[in-house]
Amino acid sequence: MEHETHTAHQHEGQGREGHVAHHADHATHDAHASHADRTSHKDHADHTAHAGHGHQDHAHHHGGGASWSMAAKATLHCLTGCAIGEVLGMVIGTALGWGNAPTMILAIVLAFFFGYSLTLWGVLKAGVELRAAVKVALAADTISIAVMELIDNGVIALWPGAMDAHLDDAKFWWVLAIALVAAFIITTPVNKWMIGRGKGHAVVHQYHH
Questions:
Q1: Band of the pLDDT at 111, cuts 50, 70, 90?
Q2: Residue 157 near residue 124 (C-beta atoms within 8 A)
Q3: pTM
Q4: Contact partners, residue 103, CB within 8 Å, separation at least 6
């Protein structure tokens, strides 16, 4: 009897110890699981924060203001094409004996043509197919050239005697120079605003790198 009682107590003790050990193991497992869960949530939060930070940086990069240098270069690019087109239009109109109105219209058409052509050439050199390159040029230069032509031709039209000056007249050239400078000064802020919002010449920057 004593042996059976001792054995029963021993089994009971071992049972309690096993039960306690089981609970201890279970608690340890829960602790590890909780720690792993917290770690997983922390990693997920860190990843989400990092992704959000990256998205903010990306948005800031594309939505931030453009530099004046960038805007000036874009404006000068358009101004070059406009100047070539206008001078050529004046030369052709004068050589054909046209009046002021048709000569100015031709000059404006050629200004757009050469303005687009300079951008189109650069995009085509980057390997873009023709149709896509034309769309890029139209998106990049239309507003810029339109503003530039409005200011440029407005100055020439309003300047007394400028419309009647011939190519061999110094007045024609210095009024044209003043008109182009005015167009550059007024169009540069427009290009800066557009580039800062991913429009205008911003669409061709990816093809220049």
A1: very high
A2: no
A3: 0.65
A4: 89, 90, 92, 93, 94
